Amino acid sequence: MAAILTVRDLRKRYPKVVAVDGVSFEVEEGICFSLLGPNGAGKSTTVEMLEGILPPSAGEIRFRGRPLDATYRERIGIQFQNTALQDFLTVRENLRFFRALYRHGADIDELIEVCRLREFLDRDTRKLSGGQRQRLLLAIALVNDPELLFLDEPTTGLDPQARRNFWELVRSIKARGKTIVLTTHYMEEAYLLSDDIAIMDHGRIIARGSPQQLLSEHFDDSVLELPVSAVAGKSLALPLLQRGEWVEIITADVGAAVRSLLAADVPLDRLRIRPRTLEDLFLQLTGSELRT
Ligand SMILES: Nc1ncnc2c1ncn2[C@@H]1O[C@H](COP(=O)(O)OP(=O)(O)OP(=O)(O)O)[C@@H](O)[C@H]1O
């Protein structure tokens, strides 16, 4: 598959901080590529350079093998966290307004179907729920029928159901051949949607791969979880990691760990065994909990 974006040694320096410190990667056409990282890692700065909004201090970005030019903005779509929707206009009127900014673009009726806007088409945009608003912002990002779509923390603030609905939408857009660049603070979202992930910290990429590759390259162990109360007062040879009301035991030998828990008389009725997740990897690589 050909690269739609090629990024070489991209840098952004501000007077007091190097926000992006030499990142290189390719985004293959038709995939969902995600940038993850703790606050201040340089994700937004990187994405704004990819969007052509912010000039790099050094390095290069190519779209389909060519430097970004005046046509680039017509060929990409950006879902901003806070696009200025036209107040006092309905959803339908907003769509028409943004569609009119482009000579060529998507069919409005098709967008209404794809983004499932039909049931609130005539509603004033100030009266939309969080999920409805995000669907409209997504439709607006798609009005010019872009080849490449940027989604910047698109589900922040949505309830779990609205978030799941949005994921379905993103999948259906990808199935229509769009390439997606996603930034998110939700590891589950990154895991479920991404084909390729770059984890950034301090302006650099510190890990890269598909979700499965990242997990299998970094981990060969599992996590046993028990309530704190189950291990309280027990003398255990296993290292315990406390996380809220639960303790975690990380082990490559689940059988041996369970045997030593039994030997120490630890009640196992609430024992949970889980594989490693992107959240674990993120914590291991960056030392930071994710902002939620
Ligand atoms: N316009 C600016 N002027 C000066 N410093 C900036 C500017 N924009 C970003 N920075 C700094 O660059 C670094 C990277 O910021 P950036 O917003 O790209 O990180 P991020 O990974 O997107 O973080 P978040 O998850 O909080 O959005 C930070 O130290 C930030 O303070």
TrEMBL record:
It comes from the Bacteria. SUPFAM superfamilies: P-loop containing nucleoside triphosphate hydrolases. Transmembrane segments: none annotated. PROSITE patterns: ABC_TRANSPORTER_1 (PS00211), ABC_TRANSPORTER_2 (PS50893). One of its GO terms (molecular function) is ATP hydrolysis activity. It is found in: Cell membrane. Keywords: ATP-binding, Cell membrane, Membrane, Nodulation, Nucleotide-binding, Translocase, Transport. GO terms for cellular component: plasma membrane. Residues 5-227 form the ABC transporter domain. InterPro entries: AAA+_ATPase (IPR003593), ABC_transporter-like_ATP-bd (IPR003439), ABC_transporter-like_CS (IPR017871), ABC_transporter_ATP-binding (IPR050763), P-loop_NTPase (IPR027417). Belongs to the ABC transporter superfamily. This is ABC-2 type transport system ATP-binding protein.
